[in-house]
Amino acid sequence: MNFSYFNFWVRNVALYLFFCLLGLVTILMDKDHPVHREGEAFRAILQGGVIVLIAHIQVYVHNVYLYKRFFSRQNLKYITGLFLLAGSYFLINYFTPFRFVKNDEPVTMVISIFLVYLVGLGFYYAHKNILERNLLFKTELVERDEEIRHLKAQLNPHFLFNALNNLYGLALTEPSETPDKILELSDLLRYQIEFSKKEKVSLDDEISFIRKYLSYEQSRNPKLKIDFITDVASHEDMISPMLFMPFIENAIKYSAHTDHPFCFLSIRTVKKSLNFHMRNNFTSERRKFAGTNTGISNTKQRLELTYRNRHELVISETDHIYTVELSIKL
Amino acid sequence: MKLKCLIIDDEAPAHKVLHAHIAKTEMIEIAGDVYDGKEAIDFMSKTKIDLIFLDIEMPKLTGLEMLQCLPYHVPVILTTAYSNFGFEAYQNDVVDYLLKPISFPRFLKAINKVSNLNRLNSRT
Do B101 and A256 touch (CB under 8 A)? Predict the structure, then answer.
């Protein structure tokens, strides 16, 4: 069992036990209560527990079925449901041996049941709030983590000094091409530094970044065969930045170990669903250098947090071919 | 006689820097350009070379791994963006260690080391 904030069962059981305890203390303090009479203690305590359970179920039905579905959207249905629910509570109390408090005035009962709903809703909201804040913090944390990983990867000496050395070589041999290459490199760096901080970026921007990144990698390794197909219908689609980069970086890194490296990519959108497909080759002998794969596990976490229940990721490895199939509801 | 050198670097543009520097240097010429360790060993077994420019961070075989399996002894100058492989490199008898981006004066210094070494060797 998972005792996290996400566990509604734990909350429900804990609250039930808490109210039982509260009820027990109340009836023990009440000197006239049947619990103090001989032979009736067990029955009185059991009855108290069942009453709390009934109230609990009432609150559950109210929160999960009535409030969530109808409140502020179909108020008439909500109010009707509320009265039906309260009515069922009266029926249970009057026609079963579990009467809440004997000789209760109907007005007191009405007030008490609505108070119960209110308290229940309060707990529900408190829990929901904690849960949402928790999710938000987690998402932010993973995003920051990914940002740092990216900056580290791109601002590491290997990338930066090699890039500078390449520019230097170009300036010596083909000075006329150098200014463009400097701009391309600064575009790449700027996007990674500035855009990776944002929560969402336009899909068009992200794709143009991937294109620049691939063309940079292509210039480093002319043997690498790259194919990048995009088919994006809308120019308004937004996406979490750098979501595909760990896959692409890995593809380029691992295919480089083969004699004929290739990396085929496609990004397609149909209405609000995006399909990312990637295929690259690798050699099994270099698996030991696979490293920790922080990038991929970060991406999985980010997908889980940002596109919870709205994505499907299938990674498969066959015969020196690595395939990633990712679909997201934007 | 000019020294025949082989350039081993997985990044194609990195070769350009060395090409430009070598073109300005009297005593060496390029015997070949290769992009990974395997190609390098194939090349060396066919052609006798006098000097190697070797990158460290390469797929398939890293530069340091390459040093362990050269088919015959030949002076090696490492060319890398990392400054922290120095010790390991000198354990494997490299002549010099050039940090990218490689300036021409620093390149020339490395070539002079090689030629001094060659002169010493031929005297004994």
Answer: no
Domain ranges across chain A: 8-133, 137-329
B105 touches chain A (CB under 8 A): no
Sole residue written with tokens 């050198």: B5
Name the residue among B21, B59, B81 with its Cβ closest to that of A157: B81
Contact B17 A160 (CB under 8 A): no
pLDDT higher than threshold 50 for residue A136: yes
Contact B34, B43 (CB under 8 A): yes
Query: What does pTM read for this prediction?
Result: 0.71
Q: In CATH, which superfamily holds the domain spanning A137-329? A: Histidine kinase-like ATPase, C-terminal domain (3.30.565.10)
Taking the C-alpha atoms of residue A90 and residue A83, their distance in angstroms, rounded to an integer, is: 10
The residues that bridge with A202 in the sheet, in sequence order, are: A238
Q: Return d(Cα B93, Cα B105) in angstroms, integer.
A: 22
Q: Which domain CATH number covers B48? A: 3.40.50.2300
Residues paired with residue A275 on neighbouring β-strands, in sequence order: A268, A327
Per-position DSSP letters for A193-260, written without gaps between them: HHGGGSS-EEHHHHHHHHHHHHHHHHHH-TT-EEEEEEE---S--EE-TTSSHHHHHHHHHHHTTSSS
Please determine, for residue A101, whether its predicted confidence score (pLDDT) is greater than 60.
no
pLDDT of residue A306: 87
Q: Which residues of B touch A223 (CB under 8 A)?
A: 35
Instruction: Mention every residue, 6+ apart, whose C-beta is less than 8 A from residue A147.
Output: A196, A197
Measured in angstroms, the CA of A203 and the nearest CA of chain B are apart by 30
| Chain B environment of A173 (Cβ under 8 Å) | 16, 19-20
CB contacts < 8 A, A to B, total 71
DSSP string, A14-69: HHHHHHHHHHHHHHHH-TTSGGGSTTTHHHHHHHHHHHHHHHHHHHHHIIIIIIHH
pLDDT of A290 > 60? The answer is no
Please state, in angstroms and rounded to a whole number, the distance separating the CA atoms of residues B40 and B16. Answer: 18
Q: Which domain holds residue B84?
A: 3-123
